[in-house]
Design goal:
By secondary structure, the protein is of the alpha+beta class. It is built from 5 helices and 15 strands. Strand 10 and strand 11 form a beta hairpin. It comes from Comamonas avium. Keywords: Membrane, Transmembrane, Transmembrane helix.
Length: 298
């Protein structure tokens, strides 16, 4: 026998109606709108966080690149012009060295002219020239790592890790196609990318050594006075990879000119791939080791 809903007690009819109830269209739309707004806020926060993270990462990478570039420059420039010490005449290459032995700087070795081979530069090099070229005397010394057949070896290396010739180690630097290139014995190879500018200035000694005075000059002003260059300032401008939403007129300070003036460059108007990228300028001065020799040669 079937029982109709009408014949059920009042409390059971209420439960049945509650089971059959659901969301209205308006309630469903309100829920979807709240969900979409929550997703939009979360996505906005995620994009902002990613942008900040990318900018910080870009800045850190530029710091690392500059540190590496200046480490290469320091290794080569601080050696510029250095030469082997001549021990007392009675000493042979394999003799034990005594700290009290008289020494003298080697004035010249075959295939190495310190007045020609140690330093040169170009303000506007062509495709076959370099902005900066440095060199120093290559020599061997007695090492525990040398083979039994050859107890002497050289630890000196150029900017690419090459040992160079028997008498001279040279490194050549130039900026081409936003890459800082270095050449040793062969073709130039990139050592740092995303380079917007590479400039060098030279501290030229302009007065006698008794009352020395230095002046910042470019390569053209140095002319034939490379033997009076006391130190070199290296300036690099590096740029990042991430596009930044920066306000109009955002600028950075470029490398200084020979007269010391510094231009402000608008980052929002640069051509690709540099437009709206973070730019950082790095400068360091390296004193040349050859200064004692150069003073004696004047």
């Amino acid at each position: 026998m079937s029982i109709s809903l009408v014949s059920l007690p009042q409390q059971y009819r209420h439960i049945e109606r509650r089971k059959q109830s659901g969301l209205s269209l308006i309630e469903l739309l309100v829920g979807l709108s709240i969900g979409l707004l929550t997703i939009a806020v979360a996505m906005g926060a995620l994009m902002t966080s990613r942008s900040v993270t990318a900018t910080v990462t870009d800045s850190s990478q530029l710091q690392q690149q500059s540190a590496y570039a200046f480490r290469v420059f320091a290794q080569q420039l601080r050696q510029t012009g250095s030469m082997r010490l001549n021990l007392a005449a009675q000493k042979t290459e394999d003799a034990v060295i005594d700290i009290t032995d008289p020494v003298a700087f080697e004035t010249k070795a075959e295939g190495f002219d310190p007045m020609i081979d140690i330093l040169s530069g170009k303000d506007s090099p062509n495709e076959n020239e370099f902005s900066l070229s440095v060199g120093y005397r290559n020599y061997t010394e007695q090492l525990h790592t040398a083979t039994a057949a050859n107890k002497r070896a050289s630890l000196l290396r150029n900017c690419l890790g090459e040992n160079g010739s028997a008498t001279l180690i040279q490194s050549h630097f130039v900026l081409r196609n936003n890459e800082l290139l270095c050449a040793g014995q062969g073709d130039a190879q990139p050592i740092v990318d995303n380079v917007a500018n590479f400039q060098t200035r030279y501290l030229l000694q302009t007065t006698p050594h008794g009352d020395p005075k230095m002046q910042y000059v470019n390569a053209a002003t140095v002319g034939s006075q490379w033997n009076n260059v006391f130190a070199i300032e290296v300036c690099l401008v590096l740029y990042g990879n991430e596009v930044i939403d920066m306000p109009a007129g955002s600028s950075y300070s470029d490398c200084p000119a020979a007269d010391g003036s510094i231009a402000e460059i608008d980052m929002t108007t640069l051509d690709a791939p540099r437009t709206r990228r973070i730019h950082k300028t790095f400068r360091t001065v390296f004193q040349l080791r050859s200064q004692g020799l150069l003073q004696a040669s004047n």
